[in-house]
Amino acid sequence: MSSPVWHPYAHLKTQTPAPRVVGGSGAHLELESGERLLDATCSWWCMIHGYGHPRLVAAIREQAGTLCHVMLGGLTHGPADQLARELVRITPDGLDHVFYSDSGSVGMEVAMKMALQYQVLTGYPSKRRMLSLMKAYHGDTTGCMAVCDPEEGMHSLFAGLLPSHHFAPAPTAPFDGSPAQVGADLDALRHVLERHHDEIAALLMEPLLQAAGGLNMTSPDYLRGARALCDEFGVLLVFDEVATGFGRTGKLFAADHAGVTPDIMVLSKGLTGGYLGHAATLATDRVHAAFIGDSAQHAFMHGPTFMGNPLACRVALESLRVFEEEDYLAKIATLNQTLRRELLDDRALNAHPAVADVRVLGATAVIETPTADALAGVASFARKHGVWLRPFGRWLYTMPAYITSPSEMTQITDVMKAWFSESRYR
Ligand SMILES: *Cc1c(COP(=O)(O)O)cnc(C)c1O
User: Fold this and answer.
1) 255 and 274 part of one domain
2) Which residues are catalytic?
3) What positions does the entry give for pyridoxal 5'-phosphate binding (predicted)?
């Protein structure tokens, strides 16, 4: 009998039955069939400690015995307060206020509402649109769909429903791009701001790594340049660090590569170590201060039922402790070395006719192919080799859990390379 579960992003006519997961430990998933699959993508990039981490599991159990949930409207509790303090401590200087919500998409909705209301409250009511980048992905809710890449961003069907925002070209300079390359990207951004700044509330970006839009990587200088442009044109800078946060790019936050503080920053995926859905939208004093006032317009009208959920906050605190005590940034550096050696430095792979580009940043690597056809069948190929790989579009990528050992990492890269060396393209 087929299951009533409706799977995401699936073509119902052609989808193959989803393997049933019965457990997981470390970087491995355990299937009902008895297979153990090494998860190359740590469940959409969030299970950064892997599965069944004893400290995270214990934190949830302990908190469940005390307080599972309470509304944050008019009430507070220890885990919400402590986590907010920790997030303020570890994020770039100046982000001092934390608004919780339940997912990355909602965290971005909160960021956009906050930016727009900030402009109204500070005397710029005509600044009502967002400026986003091509190749952006900021979530699947209606507000977020409108700031995803309007052409390739999988939501074009809904174009008529969505508010229209401004878009600048995606940055093209690589991570170590030259000043001239970055300068060209910033000129393109300036061009849009010059024409439309009087109606733009905020510039939104996934800093350094546009993830779901094709793992497009760029230079820290682009972030510094964007910060300066936002200041020049009275536009808030919003960093969507839902994917990049908590080490994915090699530093705790992508913003840390550039020494830039955005006005608003959104965290989710890795926030709870992936163990529960939650998000945090952080704001600077300047943004927060604009909301202090006497009119009805000064209240921020948003409040998801599960914001600040005690279980989520408690497990997020434990996740951060493990991250720091076990020096995860060093683990990420080791993963990065392996990814560079095995993929970037592999001549045969880079010369393969079905490989358009290979990119590595932190604990992220992608092999880009000219067309999606070149990746048809790769998931079942990888499964036969004991690896769970789930490419999208033209991108075969890995974003492993940080506890992935060097030999597990090479098992993943070996499978990625074998797909090309053993394929019909050979
Ligand atoms: C995943 C993601 C989101 C959406 O988060 P959800 O929790 O799936 O709603 C937003 N922005 C970025 C950059 C993401 O990678």
Assistant:
1) yes
2) 9, 137, 240, 269
3) 104-105, 240, 304-305
